[in-house]
Design goal:
alpha+beta, BirA Bifunctional Protein, domain 2, Rossmann fold, 2 domains, eight-stranded mixed sheet, 16 helices, 39% helix, elongated, binds histidyl-adenosine monophosphate
């Protein structure tokens, strides 16, 4: 019978690779705790309306890339293409903004986008994201950027750059949109169909259209930074000063406009040289209007998300530190039926005392058991036979150098812990 294959653009993460994911996730959790961010989890699917209203119904993500479906009651739902809208929905639903502010949250989630798969671009992918609510202080922007940079440094990457821009508030944006529309109208016929529609409704989305023709046409378009109002300019300058004071290098990049509608003021991306076309490891920015747009009180907010597949690609390309995969501390081999029984009892007991241990369940000969122990990269092995059981004593053999340590069978855990010191 024909085998069923995984859906294009999705990936299994196999046991042999899992230690790399634990490494990234552990690093995220440790850093977030150090920065005072708390974890939040929320559903993989939400009402389509949340993303249409939150992310924006003229964005590529919502218009072209969202997986939508109807449930049996005819309600329109979507797999989350990103995390911000879901977090805002959850924060409002549970009145979290009435507590102590700023509210600093993070998440590790899967996201779904129906894009054309290529290296670094998938249909199911993983994000680490953060969202902070309640502060409009540019120093908060700097803290969020510093968390992104810290993560990238903590996993050992050196070849990355922080790209910074400000796309202003609705006031600056309306003046800018007029100038941009004027520029685009002259090129309208050459734009793709979707962008011809966007031109009048949301001209900024033309700037991040993925079609190479549209990308070419927008070269030389007016840049938003020239249209910033006084407040937005001051905010942006203050952020830059704080980043300089913190020693975080960045480059100003007019092209960073982000592909999602909710952004205001600060936007940033962290790019790597190792990723080719999909060079962005991490992107985010301020979204001071979104909470209100989704039914809450006006609340300033800022966040970012990093793609974990892309982060891992960079770690591997830069040969950054990856911890060794987990291996058993002890392999218990047996010879004879009585020792076979005792081995089960012993490993159960040792596991209870915090020792990771393994044994054979395939009826292997003693020689084959030792080969298996080698394959598992066990740190120590111990052979149990009638003689060892009778004496209540055996030998722990350190596989790295072959050294043996005598051990009483009721003191294996203590002895192992002592040798390891
Ligand atoms: P985003 O730029 O759409 O932002 O995605 C963030 C990161 O997710 C990207 O920089 C990239 O590393 C990864 N990513 C996006 N699409 C794919 C894909 N198809 N395959 C693999 N990785 C991908 C957001 O999602 C915003 N919610 C970030 C944010 C949070 N802004 C404020 N708060």
């Amino acid at each position: 019978m024909e085998k069923i294959r995984a859906i294009k653009g999705t990936h299994d993460i196999l046991p042999e690779e899992m230690f790399k994911w634990y490494h990234m996730e552990d690093t995220v959790r440790q850093l977030c705790s150090r920065f005072g961010f708390e974890e939040i989890r929320f559903p993989v699917f939400e009402y389509t309306d949340l993303f249409a209203r939150g992310v924006g119904d003229t964005t590529d993500v919502v218009q072209k890339e969202m997986y939508t479906f109807e449930d049996k009651g005819g309600r329109r739902m979507a797999l989350r293409p990103e995390g911000t809208a879901g977090v805002v929905r959850s924060v409002l639903e549970h009145s979290l903004l009435t507590g102590v502010l700023p509210l600093k949250l993070f998440y590790l989630i899967t996201c779904y986008r129906n894009e054309n798969p290529q290296a670094g671009r998938y249909r199911e992918f993983h994000q680490f994201g953060t969202e902070v609510f309640g502060s409009s202080d540019p120093k908060m922007d700097a803290e969020v950027i510093s968390l992104a940079v810290s993560l990238i440094r903590a996993v050992g990457l050196k070849h990355f750059s922080v790209h910074l821009n400000s796309i202003g508030c609705p006031t600056c944006r309306s003046r800018y949109n007029e100038a941009l529309k004027e520029f685009l109208r002259e090129r309208k016929d050459a734009l793709c169909h979707t962008c011809q529609d966007r031109l009048e409704r949301n001209p900024m989305r033309v700037l991040d259209c993925k079609s190479p023709e549209c990308q070419k046409l927008v070269e030389g378009a007016p840049v938003l930074r020239d249209f910033l109002c006084e407040e937005c300019r001051e905010h942006f300058e203050s952020l830059q000063e704080t980043l300089r004071a913190m020693g975080i290098d960045f480059v100003l990049n007019d092209k960073i406009v982000r592909g999602l509608d909710y952004y205001t003021k600060t936007v940033f991306e962290i790019k790597s040289e190792h990723l080719g076309a999909q060079s962005t490891i991490c992107g985010g920015g301020r979204y001071d209007g979104l909470v209100e747009q989704l039914g809450g009180k006006p609340t300033p907010a800022i966040g970012f998300a990093a793609g974990l597949e892309r982060l891992l690609m960079c770690i591997e390309a830069e040969q950054a530190f990856l911890p060794q995969p987990q291996r058993p501390q002890l392999f218990v081999a047996y010879l004879g039926e009585e020792a076979n029984q005792f081995a089960s009892k012993l490993i159960y007991q040792l596991r209870g005392e915090g020792i990771s241990c393994q044994r054979d369940y395939m009826g292997r000969s003693l020689k084959a058991q030792m080969k298996y122990a080698d394959k598992l990269s066990a740190e120590f092995t111990m052979v149990l036979g009638d003689d060892e059981l009778e004496r209540g004593q055996a030998a722990l053999r350190r596989m790295a150098d072959g050294q043996e340590f005598p051990v009483r069978l009721d003191e294996v855990a203590q002895q192992l812990k002592q040798i390891a010191q």
